[in-house]
Write a structure and sequence with these properties.
The structure is a homodimer. Chain A is α/β, with parallel strands linked by helices. In chain A, about 45% of the residues lie in helices and about 20% in strands. Chain A is built from twelve helices and twelve strands. In chain A, α7 links the parallel β8 (about 205-210) and β9 (about 235-240). In chain A, α6 (about 185-200) crosses α7 (about 215-230). The longest helix of chain A is centred in the N-terminal third of the chain and has 19 residues, at about 15-35. One 3-isopropylmalic acid (IPM) sits at the interface of chains B and A. Chains A, B: It comes from Methanohalophilus mahii (strain ATCC 35705 / DSM 5219 / SLP).
């Protein structure tokens, strides 16, 4: 019997409830497919932070780097200012473990309601590969106080007006700025990951950028994309401006197979993707370092107001669990979880409150576990 | 009889055809409501650029600044590299005339098909106020060649890992970067515009940002928003992360009245907005400087492959024309155009190819003009 050790960070709000269902289902898959998971629990999240002042320490991260996959519930708490926990735990882990791929399957399961007209599961089935450690997520930025920002403002405005004789008053202004950065190596590896994935799927990769306006950063992205594409002549490609792709996700989701995107645009379009696949309750994500430590999570937040009510949807977390064991090499078991999720929805008409019903969190987990064992 | 002089830039591809319908309809509204427009045509666009090398000159911009509203068709041509015409004409004008508001009504007209289930015109009726001259549109960025980028890469990565003992190899990398900037004055004025608009509508302003990650630039935006909000105690407000708002546009568009957004996020969410109101063929935009020269345009592109076929949808352009004359002070005439557009769709079941029918561009313009004159 293969033995895995998997660290779990249940986190805040509904995190512990949904992760419990995920572990239950993975344990059932283990029983069925002959592996055993030893779950190692970590306390990180808002309570731990408020009690100890610690977000996540280097010692903990070092320790976690001994494992190939971490299972994460959800992080976030109204008592803590926006950004603190997200940056201090979630983004810290993504950067520390160099999880350069954020993998987001956008797949409408059979029996799930989508807000889009005339779309069925065969129309909505693609994967977004989001770059996960660069771009505008690097955290460089700042402010200039009154009077000191004259120069920067003038430089910026002059880019469109240098040749024109504009008289801009700037003395009294303050500014704030933010810098995005992408590296050649960081861009290539994620694009290569997307092409490798497309080779196993329908051989189509769509790239997302805004090269017509943010030309410096995304012109570079396009060049790297073209370089990698040249080494995969059998894969079809196209470029999509980020504004336009939000329209195609709604109108023509069937156009997509693999979508590769810079970090920030990826953040935006994967939430839209979650909605067309039925909502955040059904949307899993993987933060992947193929040679290192990966981390799997539902992409929704900690929904503090639903905590402890046994009513939230555990499917996103269970699905993330299936991605986790797939990453560990248990491909067949991973696939069996996704089909059990789907079978449960169809046969038992399972609908948690977000899907318009009143199924219980723990029943959904129980039923999926049972289906896996019985099949 | 009031006399207006309005510069027109028909532009590329289908631009001339759709602008012709817009002028036809405005002329009819003038006949009905007692004003006359003297149209002054400008040749700028791809052909002019390819023939003369000129995008738009300072002399032309100076001349245009004598008028309060410009009517723009569409700019863009496959013979010219992405970004050149957009930056050289469209963005040049937005920046030169300091058109700090990009106004985008998201309104599902009666009789128009939306891709969203269960949504009717009463659910989709809000306005996006997009900041239009700052943020990541300022055009500052660059690249560092092999070996020279070590420092910047290290600074950036260290933000999440400074306290940790990470060993990052950077010697061989190249990077590209892009800087966004917002000023206090630039942020306040657009937020104030949004609140003034909400005062005349349903007294709700939703702000868009990503303050949990791009904290420097959008933390500043939030502070300015809160300051302005404090001066409008009767207006309800909320903050929306840009990723989340794409979900609400699809699931709960009825939540919104006025949405105010930084430039780049505004670009993205207004395309999504266009889709939920029936597509780009139905989506007008205004680039507004309330004290200076504004510019009105359909938000779609120049669709070169449909040029000269008399089949594209002129409604976005006609609607932009209604915003234009509204800006000139002809409020009643402006409103009459929007209701004639709607009446024409309902009564004559008008559908151009993008709406699933085969109505002709020029017939749509003729019919709307006739309705205005007959009402
Ligand atoms: C919580 C937040 C920091 C995070 C992000 O912006 O990446 C989330 O939106 C996501 O998509 O995983
Ligand atoms: C054409 C392009 C430069 C422009 C923008 O990005 O602002 C367009 O997408 C828009 O929304 O008006």
């Amino acid at each position: 019997m293969t033995q895995y050790k998997v660290p779990v960070i249940p986190g805040d709000g509904i995190g512990p409830e949904i992760v419990a269902e995920g572990m239950k289902v993975i344990d059932a898959a283990g029983e069925k497919f002959g592996f055993d998971v030893d779950w190692i629990e970590y306390p990180h999240g808002a309570d731990h932070y408020l009690e100890t002042g610690e977000l996540i320490s280097e010692d903990t991260l070092k320790e976690l780097s001994n494992y190939s996959a971490i299972y994460l519930g959800s992080i976030g708490d109204p008592r803590v200012a926006p950004g603190v926990l997200e940056k201090g735990i979630l983004l810290a882990a993504r950067f520390y473990f160099d999880q350069y791929v954020n993998l987001r399957p956008i797949k409408l399961l059979e029996g799930v309601w989508t807000p889009l007209k005339d779309k069925t599961p065969k129309d909505i089935d693609f994967t977004v590969v989001r770059e996960n450690t660069e771009d505008f997520y690097i955290g460089i930025g700042g402010r200039s106080k009154k009077g000191t920002s004259k120069e920067m403002l003038e430089v910026s405005r002059s880019l469109y007006s240098a040749k024109f004789d504009l008289d801009i008053e700037t003395d009294s202004e303050e500014i704030a700025y933010q810098i995005g950065m992408i590296s050649k190596e960081g861009t290539r590896r994620v694009i290569e990951y997307a092409f490798d994935l497309a080779e196993k799927r329908d051989k189509h990769v769509a790239s997302v950028d805004k090269a017509n306006v943010l030309s410096d950063i995304y012109g570079f992205w396009r060049e790297e994309f073209e370089d990698v594409a040249a080494t995969h002549p059998d894969v079809e490609t196209d470029f999509n401006y980020v504004d336009a792709i939000t329209m195609w996700f709604v109108k023509n989701p069937d156009w997509f197979d693999v979508v590769v995107t810079p970090n920030m645009f990826g953040d935006i379009i994967t939430d839209l993707g979650a909605m067309i696949q039925g909502g955040l309750g059904l949307a899993p994500g993987g933060n992947i370092n193929p040679e290192g430590t990966s981390m799997f999570e539902p992409i929704h937040g900690s929904a503090p107001k639903y905590k402890g009510q046994n009513k939230v949807n555990p499917i996103a977390t269970i699905w993330a669990g299936s991605m986790l064991i797939d990453q560990l090499g248990e491909t067949e078991a991973g696939a069996s979880i996704v089909s059990a999720i789907e079978q449960n929805i169809i046969e038992n008409n399972v609908k948690t409150y977000d899907m318009g019903g009143s199924s219980k969190t723990s029943d959904v987990g129980d039923d999926i576990a049972r289906i896996i064992l019985e099949e």
